[in-house]
Request: fold
Amino acid sequence: EVQLVESGGEVVQPGESVRLSCAASGFSFSSYSMNWVRQAPGKGLEWVSYISSGSGSIYYADSVKGRFTVSRDNAKSSLYLQMSSLRDEDTAVYYCARPYCSGGSCYSRSAFDIWGQGTVVTVSS
Amino acid sequence: QSALTQSPSASGSPGQSVTISCIGTSSDVGDYNYVSWYQQHPGKAPKLMIYEVTKRPSGVPDRFSGSRSGNTASLTVSGLQAEDEADYYCSSYADSNNLVFGGGTKLTVL
Reply:
């Protein structure tokens, strides 16, 4: 079964750091780029970061640039998000998401068909 | 990069059709064929319903269809069913390697 499982979410104070993990199984993780998407309580979805299959291309939303770092370990089929200088507005459910692939094409930057269950990060003093 | 604009709510009776709009700009919806739509039930992860403006992933009922006119993308749900009641989000690839989402539309089946 194709599966993504996030972990690492916790309650932290503003200015602190958290590292999220996303464990992949059931597919060839090293062949796929990956994304992080978050959802604040009662709010919509917000794209956070993208990393290519070999880590050669990395992009961030302006709202997290300079504070968050995405990485991956293909040998461990794992994706990570190091979050630092956390703010109240970073409170959200964080999802890792795999792009949809069909007919030899993968929509790496635009369409995600496999999502984890999400992990909750709460930033509060 | 600003979020795409969606109406907060939409509704329809079982069997009817409803269309949800997603307004972007010439830097996202209007410039790239990479508009997607997601369905999200409460407490669940999003589910991909439409990609590349009009295409359906395998397993998505053909009651769901996507279209675009200029900077506005639309999702139409035909033959509404009770299980279609959910939040729907559009997204688009955007300039400078960004991906933007809409604020979401809550679809109520009356």
Q: What stands out?
A: The radius of gyration of chain B is 13 Å. The mean pLDDT of chain B is 95. Chain B touches chain A at residues 1, 3, 32, 34-36, 38, 40, 45-48, 51-52, 57-58, 89, 91-93, 97-104 (CB under 8 Å). Chain B is about 0% helix and 45% strand.
